[in-house]
Each structure stands twice: as C-alpha cells, then as structure tokens.
Amino acid sequence: MSRQARANGTGDGKAAGAIVTVLLPDHIDSATAQDVEKSMLEVLAPGARVVVDGGAVTYMSAAGVRTLATVLRHAEEQQARVVFCRFTGAAEDCLVVGGFAQLLDVVGTPEEAAAKLRAKPVGNPADRLHRHGAAG
Fold it and tell me: pLDDT tens, 13-24?
C-alpha cells in the first residue's frame, strides 16, 4: 500500500447518505502525515460520514495523532461525522497512552463504525478536543 490514505466506499462521500471508508497507510509519521491528512480532508464535505480504518497502521507518531485530531476538527466545521476503527498494537497504544482514544470516536470494526455513523449522533466528538473549563 502507498504511504497515503485511500478512500473506498459508496460514492465520493459527498452524496447524501454515503459512508466513505478511508484506509490509512502502514506508517503515519512526520514524513507522511501531511499527505495522509490531505487525503482524509478530500473526502470531507458538509454532512459527510467517514470511517477511518487504521487496520494497516503499524506505526504512528505524534504527527499521526495530530493528523487525526485535525481531521476531526475539520469534520466538525463541516458538520461531518468521523469514526475511527481497527487500530491495534503500537498504533492503538499511541492513541490510548496519549489519551486520544477518549477524544476520538474509536470502535473495533468497520461494521461498528458504519453502524455508529448510521445512528443519530449524540453530542459532538470535536467538543472533547477543547473541554470548557479544562486547564491547559
């Protein structure tokens, strides 16, 4: 697989009701994060529903985590919804240890992610990025 995210799914993500799956590459680091971010942002549109599949990710640096948070912020601005899935091993550890698993909407499988996107949203995941009244 190339070191860039690839979008799969029904339609181009801009059609009403379409859920697009973005497949992340095996390494997301400072050298690849910008291309990965660009690829994920390309599928965002007002009201889009996106599954970000991290099943191939074997290494993710802080730049990769920042990329995921940036995509979530852009999604919120466009009232798009993003659910992340299948992060395992070191990539999952990076999200959990850094506390990002609590900030991002992360589930185990693409099916769970799609089901979550089909359900009515509860709250706004992007609000977790900037908690009101939190120090820091």
Answer: 445 568 999 999
- Residue 22: φ, ψ to 5°: -105, 120
CB–CB of 36/60 below 8 Å? no
Q: What's the pLDDT score for residue 12?
A: 41
pLDDT digits (tens, 9 = 90+) for 69-97: 899 999 999 999 999 999 999 888 888 88
**Encoded tokens for 121:** 């949203």
Supply the DSSP string of 46-113, one letter for each residue.
TT-EEEEE-TT-SEE-HHHHHHHHHHHHHHHHTT-EEEEE---HHHHHHHHHTTHHHHS-EESSHHHH
Are 23 and 40 in contact by the 8 Å Cβ rule? The answer is no
Q: How far is CA 48 from CA 44, 56, 72, 107, in A?
A: 6, 23, 12, 18
